């Protein structure tokens, strides 16, 4: 329906639920920036998501405190301080994957990427506060939580939580497992005086325990727990989902794979990727940007209208749901010519477009603070994997997406990974 409307604001008839669908960049700008205070992060996906990572920013009085902590960790110069450490951890886990997949048997791409990403985040942000076994358990629990009941809860946002829907039981069990892993970490950190340290570095537990608002108030254990889980979800969900789609794209576009491999080979020269290599991996970055255009991991950004408003002659009624869809905005033909074609050159230096035409990380005051972190993390993983392993996709190339919290592949992506002889 979004493509059929060719960018016009459309009201989708889903029975008792009739959201406005907004796709044009100028309309998106009005909602996410120009009049953002009138479009609240409530309902639809925010309600089920709050049970995993805490209340959305509009309803969470301590969100500014957590956001400042995330900005400290995930933006600018701070990332540079731990990029090489992250690169070494990723390379070590890619080598481990190569050894385990040496027989050429297909592996589940999502499972293996989750292992790599979680261990990198564990090493960087948690240190020795969690064992590798607990990190793997945490990754499994969060994956279940973000895939179990989200689809039914998102499609039926008006159904009270007291009314069970498909997937709710698995979701609650997964969230309980998350709590069982994270709360003891927080309690131990408090006992050890982590909230009093002045050398926390990039230890997310200590930073959240130390955080204070303007009145000197600190986060309680639930707030710290929500912040830790948010970092894991934000640091893994986009990366794992996007890079799962990458192998589908590369199998369908061998010319992209050839150019990508050549750049990685020429830049690295057989070495392990480091921070110094990243500026030279320009085509790798362009491939990732186009990947997030075609497969918009955050495929929908819902808002609730606080007061009546008018956008391009269309009255937006108070209390109505507005669905901004990056997936559809990225396919508006007059904004993205030949929008279904995978073309990394769209992101070549010097190309310009409307500021709100590309929404891979949202926009406006609630834009994801992890966009730079994603780019660094994903470049390191792709460079490590393609420089060390030769991936082959197993199964159909035309894998279709499935809606949920993120836009995941409908079928498991299975690849075989044959180590490249670099000697």
Descriptive notes:
The chain has helices at 25-34, 46-53, 63-74, 76-100, 109-126, 132-147, 150-155, 168-191, 204-210, 221-252, 254-268, 282-294, 326-329, 371-388; strands spanning 10-11, 20-22, 39-40, 107-108, 301-305, 309-311, 314-316, 321-324, 389-394, 401-402, 408-409, 414-419. It is an alpha+beta fold and 423 residues long. Strand 6 and strand 7 form a beta hairpin. It is globular, with a radius of gyration of 21 Å. 43% of the residues are buried.
What is the fold's blueprint, element by element?
Blueprint lengths: L9 E2 L8 E3 L2 H10 L4 E2 L5 H8 L9 H12 L1 H25 L6 E2 H18 L5 H16 L2 H6 L12 H24 L12 H7 L10 H32 L1 H15 L13 H13 L6 E5 L3 E3 L2 E3 L4 E4 L1 H4 L41 H18 E6 L6 E2 L5 E2 L4 E6 L4
Parallel strand pairs: 2-8
Antiparallel strand pairs: 1-2, 3-5, 4-12, 5-8, 6-7, 9-12, 10-11
Tally the structural domains. Answer: 1
CATH architecture: Orthogonal Bundle
Corresponding CATH superfamily: Cytochrome P450
Order of helices and strands: EEHEHHHEHHHHHHHHEEEEHHEEEE
β-strand percent reads: 5-15%
Distance between the termini: 53 Å
Q: Which topology does CATH recognise?
A: Cytochrome p450
* Strand order in space, largest sheet: 1-2-8-5-3
Secondary structure tally, helices: 14
Assign an overall shape: globular
How many strands, what sense, and barrel or not for the largest sheet?
5 strands, mixed
Taking pLDDT < 50 over at least 5 consecutive residues as the criterion, the unreliable ranges are none
The CATH class name reads Mainly Alpha
Portion in helices: 40-55%
What do the pLDDT scores average to? Answer: 86
Q: Class by helix and strand content?
A: alpha+beta
Number of β-strand runs? 12
């Amino acid at each position: 329906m979004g493509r059929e409307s060719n960018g016009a604001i459309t009201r989708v008839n889903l029975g008792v639920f009739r959201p406005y669908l907004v796709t044009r960049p100028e309309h998106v700008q009005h909602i996410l920036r120009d009049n953002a205070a009138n479009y609240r992060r409530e309902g639809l996906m925010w309600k089920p998501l709050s049970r995993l990572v805490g209340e959305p920013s509009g309803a969470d009085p301590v969100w500014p405190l957590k956001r400042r902590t995330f900005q400290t960790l995930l933006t600018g110069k701070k990332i540079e301080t731990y990029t090489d450490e992250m690169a070494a951890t990723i390379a070590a886990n890619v080598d481990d994957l190569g050894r385990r997949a040496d027989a050429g048997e297909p592996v589940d791409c999502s499972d293996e990427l989750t292992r790599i990403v979680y261990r990198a985040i564990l090493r960087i942000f948690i240190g020795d506060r969690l064992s590798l076994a607990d990190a793997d358990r945490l990754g499994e629990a969060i994956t279940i939580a973000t895939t179990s009941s989200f689809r039914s809860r998102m499609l039926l946002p008006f159904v009270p939580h007291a009314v069970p829907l498909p997937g709710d039981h698995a979701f609650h069990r997964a969230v309980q497992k998350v709590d069982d892993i994270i709360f003891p970490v927080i309690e131990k950190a408090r006992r050890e005086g982590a909230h009093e340290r002045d050398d926390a570095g990039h230890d997310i537990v200590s930073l959240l325990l130390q955080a204070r608002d303007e009145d000197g108030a600190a986060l309680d254990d639930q707030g710290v727990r929500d912040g830790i889980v948010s970092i894991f979800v934000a640091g893994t969900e986009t990366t794992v989902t996007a890079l799962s789609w990458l192998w589908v794209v590369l199998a369908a576009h061998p010319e992209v794979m050839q150019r990508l491999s050549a750049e990685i080979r020429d830049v690295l020269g057989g070495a392990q990727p480091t921070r110094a290599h990243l500026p030279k991996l320009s085509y790798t970055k362009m491939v990732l940007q186009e990947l997030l255009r075609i497969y918009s991991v955050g495929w929908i950004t819902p808002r609730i209208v606080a007061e009546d408003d008018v956008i391009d002659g269309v009255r937006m009624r108070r209390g109505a749901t507005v669905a901004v869809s990056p997936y559809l905005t990225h396919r508006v033909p007059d904004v993205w010519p030949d929008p279904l074609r995978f073309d990394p050159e769209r992101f070549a230096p010097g190309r310009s477009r409307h500021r709100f035409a590309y929404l891979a990380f949202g926009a406006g005051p609630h834009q994801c603070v992890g966009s730079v972190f994603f780019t660094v993390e994903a470049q390191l993983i792709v460079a490590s994997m393609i420089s060390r392993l030769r991936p082959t996709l197993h199964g159909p190339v035309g894998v279709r997406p499935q809606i949920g919290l993120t836009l995941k592949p409908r079928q498991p992506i299975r690849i075989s990974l044959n180590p490249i002889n670099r000697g």
